## 1
Amino acid sequence: MTKDELGIWGEEYACIFLKRKGFDIVERNFRFKKNEIDIIGSYNNELVIVEVKTRQTAEIGEPWRAVTKSKQKQIIKVADHYVQTNQIDMDVRFDIVSIIHNTYRTQVEHIEGAFDTLT
């Protein structure tokens, strides 16, 4: 599986995972300028912006560690545009779904409110 194929697979897997947890998937791959939000969902009257990171191994670190402060700022800008454009009046939360997938296992970590807790 190429890196791009793994990324697409991971986003699909994350959607299935979130739906099983009770999330409604509102939009996928929402783009604004050069940046993108992987998944926009709703859960418990909150708009949830989800960044998905998928790797084949955690050898260089857990996938969620790739969501740097700079990446968070980009996602927040896109989310702000989405909320304003669609006149959404809901609390907004930023989550990360971190996936390790290879021939031996698929491990998923869902970090709710990730931008509040990550450094």
## 2
Amino acid sequence: MKKEDKNKQKINKDMTIGEVLNIDENLAEVFMGFGMHCISCPVSQMETVEEACLVHGVDTEFVLKKLNEVASH
């Protein structure tokens, strides 16, 4: 899949952190901005965006909004 095609995907709460980073590795900065430093953790390959947000006490919808904003640029 070309990078342009990947960036057109809408990131959702059921995607794993690993899947999101496969779309655009620069999205790691968004996660880290919310204190979610789990991006390098092996669990990130299985943990969904929603699960990570719950664990870190951040609003899932807000995180998704930011991820999609960055991915669309």
## 3
Amino acid sequence: MALIEIGRAINTHGLKGELKIESWSDFDEIRYTPGHTIYIDRNGEVEAFTVKSYRPHKGYALVAFEELPDINAAEPYKGGIMCVNEADRHELPEGQYYYDELIGLMVEDEAGRHIGQVVAVEETNGAQDNLRVAREGNSDALIPNIPEFVKKVDKDVKVITIHVIDGLL
């Protein structure tokens, strides 16, 4: 079973065993639906838990699990990485991709010339995310992840085709 990381437990909250989670997911309401299974990875040791309740609080997800009835039971899971089964991944609309689907893809221009490989997707405070592309012999390039620059994502061939303008690279 392949797991996808969706957040990290940064602390406990209250006495009833809630974990305060720094979320890396855009779908907390779906991920933490009561009854869903969340896997917590603590240094390579993975355990399955059933969501009891979820609520947003000051930019964090507060999640209680059936198996963690109080703060004493929840305390050892601080620092744990929250994961979901890859098979439970929420389907995205056409043309949208999860970051981990883009990382590792090769990048080429519209003429088919190799540019580099996506090593990260970086969120900005602006309108779009950027693809960080490692280029051999050059510094990394930041490509705005918008249709004006990203022309095609082919996950089967593992290639992203971009439109290059002066100053982009």
## 4
Amino acid sequence: MSTLSVRLPDSLHKRVKQMAEGEGVSMNQFITLAITEKVSALITVEYLEERAKRGSRQKFEAVLANVPDVEPEVYDRL
């Protein structure tokens, strides 16, 4: 495991401390989770962008043409 020294504005440090206490975790755990969530979101964007490059309008329309033209079930309606 690595150690990282980060400088935070006092107001952010205070807020993170309060939030970590409210969650019942250490500041280290709270910050680690926050970074994990951000990295996960960025990786997901990268993945979706790569998948989008492999798609084509023609393939999409071919699949869509196979969808039956019926009303959705009551529980599935918007």
